[in-house]
Specification:
The chain contains twelve helices and eleven strands. By secondary structure, the chain is an alpha/beta fold. The chain has a nine-stranded mixed sheet. Strands 7-8 form a two-stranded antiparallel ribbon. The longest helix has 12 residues. The protein is globular.
């Protein structure tokens, strides 16, 4: 198991010193659907100034950080990124973690960092700079709403790129519901989307695409779960294998959203005026607020980028998943 003795604190500045460098705060319900772990692998390899906050956290029975935070810490250390802070976010008691009991009991405890530490650090940092950070939303928006309610003056300095939302009921698997990241905490989603002047949504209509569904026949799955897998692959490999016991694959929702947050050219956006319903569903409304939403995706280009950063090589089209 990778060492966790060098877990970072938030005492040092978190903004990149590089010219034009920006911090990415990755808010993720990692180790439910395996696309979050794959996204974090890609982020660890491509983002210099990175912070991870766990969404819909799961309490650890033996104390310490929540299970998502502890498992994310192990993965980042294994990838050579002990410099990346991991913040234990809020729990919603929603999605459970998809790891086996043996793996969970082996997770080391680590010094606790919580959302208040992040909020305090951001307050201090933004006293001296107007440079915005990127909030990469790959889970429910509870942590972001907590930040905005505690420090509403930071809203102008947060560029949100959030996975979720849909407009076309024919293209969403449960049209009677909001998309999952918005419906798990619709109040927080409403707060964040109404408060932030700069928000981009990578819609479920574009992330739930057959072109980016990964299953056991794909090389990355085989590498993560194979007998020669590197040590860092134990957690994401277990996560992926357990997920595929009941499903034929995983959509790469969150890696696609990461690519948009990094301003890579694969996701194109348009301006849409929207009304945000109480349950988190989005509706086109000429009198609504203006938000950037995904309009089209270069899936081939995205997959090529993902292959370079996570060793994914697409082979055959995935069969439909019935859920």
């Amino acid at each position: 198991m990778p060492s966790t003795t060098t877990v970072p604190t938030l005492s040092a500045p978190i903004l990149s010193s590089a010219v034009g460098g920006r911090t990415v705060v990755c808010d993720t319900d990692i180790y439910h659907d395996p696309d979050d772990a794959i996204m974090l692998i890609a982020a660890a390899r491509t983002v210099e100034s990175l912070i991870v906050v766990t969404a819909d956290e799961v309490a650890a029975p033996n104390g310490g950080d929540g299970l998502r935070a502890r498992a994310a810490r192990v993965l980042l250390d294994g990838l050579g990124r002990p410099d990346v802070p991991v913040i234990a976010g809020k729990s919603l008691e929603g999605h459970r973690i998809s790891l086996n009991h043996e793996t969970l009991t082996e997770l080391p405890r680590a010094p606790r960092l919580d959302l208040n530490d992040l909020i305090d650090q951001l307050r201090a940092e933004f006293e001296h700079t107007s440079q915005p950070l990127i909030w990469l939303g790959c889970g429910p928006m509870t942590n972001l709403a907590e930040l905005l309610l505690a420090a509403p003056h930071l809203a102008e300095q947060v560029d949100l790129v959030q996975m979720g939302g849909w407009f076309d009921p024919a293209r969403y698997r449960k049209p009677e519901l909001a998309s999952h990241n918005l419906r798990l905490d619709p109040t927080s989603a409403g707060i964040a989307l109404r408060m932030l002047p700069k928000a981009r949504l990578v819609l479920s209509e574009h992330t739930a695409a057959e072109q980016i569904r990964v299953g056991p026949q794909w090389p990355l799955y085989q590498r993560l779960t194979g007998p020669d897998a590197p040590a860092w692959a134990k957690l994401p490999g277990s996560n992926f294998a357990i997920w595929c016991l009941s499903r034929s694959g995983s959509w790469m929702h969150d890696p696609l959203t990461l690519s948009a947050a990094l301003d890579l050219p694969f996701v194109k956006f348009r301006t849409e005026r929207i009304r945000i319903a109480e349950d988190g569903r989005l509706y086109r409304d000429p009198a609504g607020r203006a938000v950037q939403v995904s309009n089209s995706v270069d899936y081939d280009g995205f997959l090529a980028w993902l292959e370079d950063n996570t060793l994914i090589t697409p082979s055959t089209a995935m069969p439909a998943i019935s859920e």
